[in-house]
Amino acid sequence: MTQASPPARPHRPAVDTVLRRFEELARDAPDAPAVLHGHEELSYGELDARAHRVAHHLLDGARPAGGLVAIALGARPALPVCLLATLKAGGTYTVVAEDDPRTARGMLAALPPYLLLTDTDRRAAGLGLPEGQRTVAVDEEASRIAGRPATAPDRTAQDRDAAILFTGAARPRPVHVGHGLLLAAHDSWAEAARLTPRDRHLFSGGPDITAFAAGWTRPLCSGGALVLPEGAGRGAHDLLDAVRDRRVSVLHTDPATAVELMVRDDRPAPVSVPRPRREPDPAFADVRLLTITGDRLYLDEQAALQDRLRPGARVLNVYGPTETAGAGTSFELPQLPGPLDTPERIALLGTPFPGFRADLRDGELLLTPPGGDAVATGDLAVLRPDGLLEFGGRLRDRITLDHGAHFDPHTIESRIRTHPAFGAAVVARVTSGTRERLVAYVAPPPGDPLWLRDPDKAALATLTAHLGRKTSPDETPARLVRLRALPRTRAGQEDRAAVPLPSRDRPPVAASALVPARSGKTGSAGESLSPGCVVGCLALPLTLGGMVLTLALWPGSTDLTGVPLPWSFLFFVLYVCESAAFAAGVLFLFGGRSRMLRQGRGRALTTAAHLSASYLLLAWWPQDNFYRLAAKHDWPRQAALVYTFNVPLMIAGLIVACYLLRRPRSPFDFDD
Fold first, then answer.
1. For the chain, what percentages of helix, strand and coil (3-state, to nearest 5) are there?
2. Is residue 125 predicted with pLDDT exceeding 60?
C-alpha cells in the first residue's frame, strides 16, 4: 500500500536552504517582527545581524567544516540567534535539554560537540562536559553590540548535516538531518498548515524536542513571528498567558498539554452523535491553527479541542517522526466522510504531507520524504476504506504472552477508553516477584477531580466487565493501577518504562482494595480503614504515652513550678508538641517508607531520607528533656548533647534536602 502527495514547492532551486529563506525575508522585510519574548521584540533585520555577529565569533575559533555546535539555552531570543549563527558558520546544530541536566549529559555524551553555546559557565559545568571541551557563554546583551560588519560567512557544502535532532523517547537517540530534509520538511509544513507572514507561532515543548528543534523554521522561514513564553515557559499558566497576550495564531503542542490547556471542564463528547456547540475558550480567540504532535490523539480528544476554538479554526493532528524532521502525515476532522462509531478507539494519522509518501510493509508504516529514502518508523498503521491511515500501535510495545503469541496493547488500551470512567490507559506486562501479569494503568477523564476517591468508578471489576468476551483472557489485565496522569517523556509521549510497579501484597482481583471505600459509617464489616484514620487513632495514645515516659525517664524536666502565666502555659504547649512530634516520628518511621518509594527517587536515597525525616521528628523529645536537666556550665555534657543531637539534625536536614532536589523517576502521584 502506498499513499503519496504532490511534491511541495517543486519550483525551488536545489541549492535552496532554510537559511537562505530566512536571509531573503530579513533583506525584504527587515522591520517585520521575528521573535517575541516578554516585552522584547526582535525584527528580522535585528535577528539576522545578531546571528551574523555570533557566526563570526564561531568562525574565529577555527571551527572545522561541519563541526557540531551544541546549544544549551532556554526559550529566549539568544536561542534562535545561535541556531541561525551555527548555520551561517557552516556548522551543524543540536539543541540539548538545558533544563534537565541528566538528559543533557546523555545527549552530549552521545554526540560530543566541537563547541557548546550556553548562557553561563556555571550551566556548562553542570552538564558534566569532558575536560578541554570548548564552551562559549552567550551574553544576551553582548550580541547587540555592533562588532564586525554583518556580512555572511562562507557556506558549507549542502550535502552536510544541518542538524542533529534527538528523539522524544525516554532515552533520546540522535538523528542526523541534512539541509535538504530540513527544507523539505519546512515546505511540506508550510503547505499543509497554510503558513502566512501574519502568523505568530508558539511551541509548548522544550527547545530540544523535534517540534521546535526542526520546527523553528516554520515561523522564521515563512515571515511569521516566533513567540517565546516567559518564566518557566511550559507551565499551563505561562502558556495561556503567552497565547493570550501575544495573540498567538499557530500553537504547536502535544496531546497531553493540549488537553490540559483546553479541556478542563468535562470529558470530550463523541463525534458520532450531534453535540451542542460549546463556547470557544477566550484565551484562544486568536488561534487559527492548533497542531498536535508527539503521541496518539484520539478522535474524541480532537473533537473536544476543536470545540474550544473559534469557528473556522483548524486542529491538525500531525504524525512527524524525528527521522523526517517532524513531517509525515496529518489529519483534521473535515477529512472524515461521515460520523464514526466509538471515536474513543480511533486515532487517525490521515494522509501524507505534500511531497511525502507513506507505505505499509507488514503493517509497519514507512515514510519517504521528497528526494529521500524510505524511513521505517517502527509504528503500525492500517489503511481504512475511506483512504485515511489509522494508528495501530508501536512495534516496541508489543507484548509476548506465555504461549509465545504476541499482541499490540494499543488495541486493548483503545477499548478501555470507550468506558466513560477512563480517560487514558496503558497496558504493560509487569514482573512482580516471580510472576508476570498484565497491568492496566488508567488515568481519569478530564474534569473529574474526585475520580481517585471513588473506588467503584474505575475498579478492576469494572474494567474486566467492560472488556468482556471481546478480549481473550490472556489479553485481559489482571491488575489495575489508577494514576493521576500517565507518565510522559519530554516530548509528551507516554512513557511505559516509567509506570510504577503495583503493590505485591494486594490480591490482583480485589477491586475494592484499590482505594479505601467511602461510607457514612466507619468500621463496618468488610470495610478497610483509611491511612488517615489509622494515624489519627494511634497519634493520641502515642502522644500521651510520650508525656508519661517523660515523667519516668526525666523526672523534673517538665516541672513548671514557679513559672508565672502565661509563660507556664506556653511551655506546657511546647512539651505537648514535643511528645506529639515524637508520636508522628514513630508513625512515620514504621509507615512512611512505602509511600516515599512511590516517588521513584531511588531506594538508597529514599531510605536515607526516610530515616532522616523520622529522626527530625523523633529527636526533639529526648533532646529538649536532656537539655533542661543539664547545667548551663556543664561543658562536657553540653558538648555531648550537641554532637549527639544537633549535628545529626543538620545531617538529616541535608539528606532530606537532597531527596527533595532529586528528580523523581516518574512525575505523577498514584494509588493502586
1. 40, 20, 40
2. no
Which H helix or E strand runs over 357?
strand 357-361
Helix H or strand E segment including 622: helix 620-629
Contact 575, 549 (CB under 8 A): no
Tell me, what's the pLDDT at 163?
A: 92
φ and ψ of 407, to 5 deg: -145, 160
Q: Which of 186, 174, 183, 232 is nearest to 206 (CA)?
A: 232
Over the stretch 191-201, which tens digit does the pLDDT of each residue have?
999 999 999 99
3-state secondary structure of 210: helix
| Euclidean distance between CA atoms 149 and 64, whole angstroms | 22
Q: How far apart are CA 249 and CA 239, in angstroms?
A: 13
Residue type at position 374? A
Strands 250-253 and 289-292: parallel
Question: For residues 511 and 462, what is the distance between their CA atoms, to the nearest angstrom?
Answer: 8
Q: Which of 42-46, 527-531, 546-550, 642-646 has maximum average pLDDT?
A: 42-46
Q: Give the position of cell 525517664.
A: 553
Asked if residue 506 has pLDDT above 50, the reply is: no
Q: Please name which of 479, 464, 488 lies closest in space to residue 430, comparing C-alpha atoms.
A: 479
Residues 6+ apart with CB under 8 A from 357: 2, 3, 4, 5, 367, 368, 374
Strands (E), 125-245: 134-137, 161-166, 174-178, 200-203, 225-228
458, HSE (Cβ side, Cα atoms, 13 Å): 28
Which alpha helices (DSSP H) does 289-402 contain, by range?
299-307
Cβ neighbours around 347 below 10 Å, total: 25
CA–CA dist 629, 647 (Å, integer): 20
DSSP conformational letter for 643: I
C-alpha cell at 633: 556550665
Cell of 438: 498484565
Query: For residue 518, what is the DSSP state?
Result: P
Q: CA-to-CA distance for 328 and 349, rounded, in angstroms?
A: 9
Q: Which residue has the cell 516518574?
A: 666
Checking DSSP bridges between strand 406-407 and strand 399-400, what pairing results, if any? antiparallel
Burial of 82 (0-12, 13-18, 19+ CB in 10 A): buried
Alpha helices (H) along 281-361: 299-307
Its pTM stands at 0.72
Yes or no: say if 317 and 331 are a contact pair by the CB < 8 Å rule: yes
CA distance 408 to 545: 57
| pLDDT at res. 645 | 81
